[in-house]
Specification:
The complex is a heterodimer.
Chain A (H helix, E strand, L loop, with lengths): L2 E4 L2 E3 L5 E3 L2 E3 L5 E3 L1 H17 L4 E6 L6 H11 L3 E5 L9 H15 L4 E5 L9 H10 L3 E11 L2 E8 L2 E7 L3 E5 L11 H7 L4 E4 L15 E7 L8 E2 L4 H14 L6
Parallel strand pairs in A: 1-6, 1-8, 6-7, 7-13, 8-12, 9-12
Antiparallel strand pairs in A: 2-5, 3-4, 9-10, 10-11
Helix pairs in contact in A: 2-5, 3-4
Chain B lengths: L2 E5 L3 H18 L2 E7 L3 H10 L5 E4 L9 H15 L1 E7 L2 H14 L2 E6 L1 E5 L2 E8 L4 E7 L4 E5 L16 E3 L10 E7 L12 E5 L9 H11 L2 E4 L1 H5 L20 E5 L5 H4 L7 E6 L12 E4 L2 H13 L2
Parallel strand pairs in B: 1-2, 1-4, 2-3, 3-10, 4-9, 5-9, 12-13, 12-14, 14-15, 15-16
Antiparallel strand pairs in B: 6-7, 7-8
Helix pairs in contact in B: 3-4, 5-8
The chains are: A alpha/beta, B alpha/beta.
């Protein structure tokens, strides 16, 4: 079973701070998206279950994010090869542009039986790219998989949709997105990290994929990206616990949240 | 291009979107139509029509049975064209979010998912959504001819039915048989919690010293008539199940009141309660960031404050 895993380089959100409502990203390290690691782990488990195949990690390079280092992390986790689409035009690309670049790279390096994604990236979390890639490649999609199995028909997935649990089956090739519950991604051993440096990494430009900057022109503009100003009351309720409890219950009754 | 088209597989969410569309439509010079798909399309369509959508397009083709994204996107793309829709509002449920990217790609459209605000500025629709794990709100405008926006449930309130009911138009687009087969659909096993729908929530965090103290949270939740939720760390410890997580990696909630107990207020958690009407915080650290987000703050030892609250609430 040949498997592609699309990953994104994300800033480490634990280290993003906000100053005067503006996010500060300078000096914040980059890493493979949290859910992308679940997707890589799912790929390794699927390949084991299927009894072989290759695993290729794909990414579309954005800005000055340290993409080569990120892909080394993906290779250390277990991908056999990495493909990086790298082009200045990707800096301004939106999800449609990133999806187009990834889809063309997948076509060029494929075919693949399964194209895996995390259900959202760590930073933007729009979840658009998997569905867009699936549409571009004409693939069915198993979204939000929390369990995956190789089945006679192709792949079987279980997913939680609100108060219901669905079991789905799709033929190959198929696009799959995973949620964090699906597995515990392995931590690469020192040996895997050393080996990762020797695995093949292909770098493609948009030209290599028959694309140009115009094809990736964004379909949306960002007007602002600021921390929210919340209009909250900031009423502190001092006193002994019993007094605080009394004051809070009275406040909630006055707010109409609690009945008398 | 004369219409806003509203669709969600959840009729309640679709009614919220209708209410949002009703506010935007005059500013954008558009009318408001809706779509209802699948086996229950007729029931949903009459609710949508009664709430002012005109017309409501329905399709109950058997291919829509499992609501496979490919088939739903095909049906909606057909309706978008027939309705002359330039704005498509979807519900950002899991299903709706998966659909949004597929439909947008099919329509050559830009897309915003998980929108938590909608406004019209300089004649353009502006959708706000959380970015960087909730640290910021990114406000985006779509520049393509058709715009697809998936709006978080409970951001808008459904309106009351009224006025003349809109016309219901059955459509019959050619639909593919779904490649994805629904093997089984069953209610979630065991205790099932829908935090996104909860009116009151008590959230507990690392202020709890040990697993044996979790019942304190349960007691308070019971006394308040609330659901119990937690930060990701408590679920990581295995103290509470993952479906109780609120925040970046869990539920995005919009309760009337959120009572945060022993929660410091990291943005990775608070993004899940930003839409709460009231936030109450109990924390022993008066400088905890949660107080900056709180309507009511109680500085104190939760092991004393929570029992006092439980006692007072029981006396109501």
């Amino acid at each position: 079973m040949d498997i592609a895993v699309c990953v994104k380089t994300n800033p480490d959100l634990e280290l993003v701070r906000v100053k005067d409502r503006v996010p500060v990203l300078e000096a914040v390290p980059f890493k493979v998206g949290d859910l992308d690691k679940n997707a890589l782990e799912a790929a390794l488990q699927l390949r084991d279950a299927a009894g072989g195949g290759r695993i290729v990690a794909f990414t579309a390079a954005q800005g000055d994010r340290k993409v080569r280092e990120t892909m080394k992390e993906a290779l250390a986790i277990g991908a056999d090869e990495a493909v990086i689409v790298s082009d200045p035009a990707l800096d301004e690309a939106d999800q449609a542009g990133a999806a187009l670049a990834l889809a063309r790279a997948l076509e060029k390096s494929g075919p693949f039986d399964v194209v895996l994604f995390g259900e959202g990236s760590t930073d933007g979390y729009s979840g658009q790219v998997p569905s867009r890639v699936a549409e571009l490649l004409g693939l069915p999609e198993l979204g939000y998989a929390r369990a995956l199995q190789v089945a006679a028909a192709g792949l079987r997935a279980e997913r939680s949709m609100g108060d219901q649990v669905e079991t789905l089956e799709a033929p190959l090739p198929v696009a799959v997105t995973v949620v964090s519950e699906i597995n515990e991604p392995r931590i690469p051993s020192l040996m895997s990290i050393m080996k990762a440096g020797k695995k093949p990494v292909a770098e493609l430009t948009l030209g290599d994929l028959g694309l140009d900057a115009a094809a990736l022109a964004p379909l949306r503009t960002v007007r602002s990206n600021l921390a929210e100003e919340q209009a909250r009351k900031h009423v502190m309720l001092p006193g002994e616990p019993a007094e605080q409890a009394e004051a809070l219950v009275n406040a909630l009754v006055a707010e109409g949240v609690l009945g008398r | 291009m004369t219409a806003i088209l509203v669709y969600s597989e959840q009729t309640g969410t679709a009614l919220e979107l209708l209410s949002a569309a009703g506010g935007l439509a005059p500013q954008l010079g558009l009318t408001v139509s809706a779509a209802a798909l699948g086996a229950d399309a007729a029931t949903a369509a009459s609710a949508l029509a009664a709430h002012g959508a005109a017309p409501v397009y329905t399709c109950a083709d058997a291919a829509l049975e499992g609501l496979d994204t490919v088939v739903v996107a095909q049906a909606l793309a057909h309706i978008v064209e027939q309705a002359g829709a330039s704005v498509v509002l979807l519900g950002s449920t899991r299903r709706g979010r998966e659909l949004a990217g597929r439909l947008a790609q099919r329509l050559g459209a830009g897309c915003v998912t998980d929108a938590v605000s909608l406004a019209v500025e300089d004649g353009a629709l502006v959708a706000g959504r959380y970015n960087l794990g909730g640290a910021t709100v990114q406000r985006e405008s779509i520049t393509s001819a058709v715009q697809v926006v998936a709006v978080m449930p409970k951001v808008f309130e459904a309106g009351e039915p009224g006025g003349a009911a809109g016309e219901v138009v059955a459509v019959a687009p050619a639909l593919p048989a779904p490649a994805v087969r629904l093997v089984e659909r069953k209610p979630r096993e065991g205790e099932s919690v829908d935090l996104a729908a909860a009116a009151r929530i008590v959230g507990v965090g690392r202020g709890l010293a040990k697993r044996d103290d979790v019942p304190l949270g349960h007691d308070l939740a019971a006394a308040l008539g609330a659901e119990l939720a937690c930060t990701k760390s408590l679920a990581d410890f295995g103290w509470l199940p993952d479906d109780r997580i609120v925040g970046l990696s869990g539920a995005k909630t919009a309760p009337d009141v959120y009572l945060a107990v022993g929660i410091s207020g990291q943005v990775q958690h608070t993004v899940g309660v930003a839409q709460a009407r009231l936030i109450v915080a109990v924390n022993q650290d008066k400088d905890a960031p949660i107080f900056a987000l709180a309507d009511y703050g109680l500085v104190g030892d939760l092991y004393q404050v929570v029992p006092a609250l439980v006692e007072r609430l029981k006396a109501l």
